[in-house]
Amino acid sequence: ELAITNLKKAEDIAVSQKYSDLLYKIYLNFSYINAKAGNNEKALDYASKSLSVSEQMGDMTKKANSLEKLITAFSRIERDDSVNIYTEKLLRIIPQVDKNSLPLLFSCLGVSYANMKKYHEAEQYIKKSLDYGYNAHSYYILGGIYIAQGKEQEAWDAWMKALETGGVETKVSVFDYIVE
Fold first, then answer.
1. pLDDT given for residue 163 in this prediction
2. 91 in the Ramachandran plot: left (φ > 0), alpha (ψ -120 to 50) or beta?
3. Using an 8 Å Cβ cutoff, are 163 and 178 in contact?
4. From residue 57, how far is each of 53, 63, 174 by CA, in Å?
5. What are 120-171's pLDDT values in tens digits?
6. 3-state secondary structure at position 134
7. What's the whole-model pTM score?
8. Do residues 107 and 90 touch, judged by C-beta distance below 8 A?
């Protein structure tokens, strides 16, 4: 509660002082917080605001991150048409995005498509995230995608890679998933 109050105060300051970078970060964080809390409409609103600020700044990496938040929120409310539209927008700017951001962006696309039960597309995006960086979380997600497709051995192999490469948080997630 205190964090949200302080973010709102920071938002007021950022707006009045025209601190675009700070405002972008505030909106992106509000989008994330609301998505985690299940407030998908608010998550969409703040993701849209972060997108607007990032476009004013002309920063393609920030724009890509904002688009990803929109895609995630739309996938959670099963708005497949909007997911597809914003995914196309994101893919068009990928060549202009900081390469260090690509593993996470593609991983998030994979999760969004998995949420929509479009496992073929989800698998492709997760594999693309792995092409851009060694990411234990992507292997963990890939295992879940394989399970949803009935590919138990491939799932197990992906989870073993996640366990080999990931930190404690990823290992706990993998073990939790396997136990379920």
1. 85
2. alpha
3. no
4. 6, 9, 39
5. 999 999 999 999 886 888 999 999 999 999 999 999 999 989 888 867 777 7
6. coil
7. 0.83
8. no
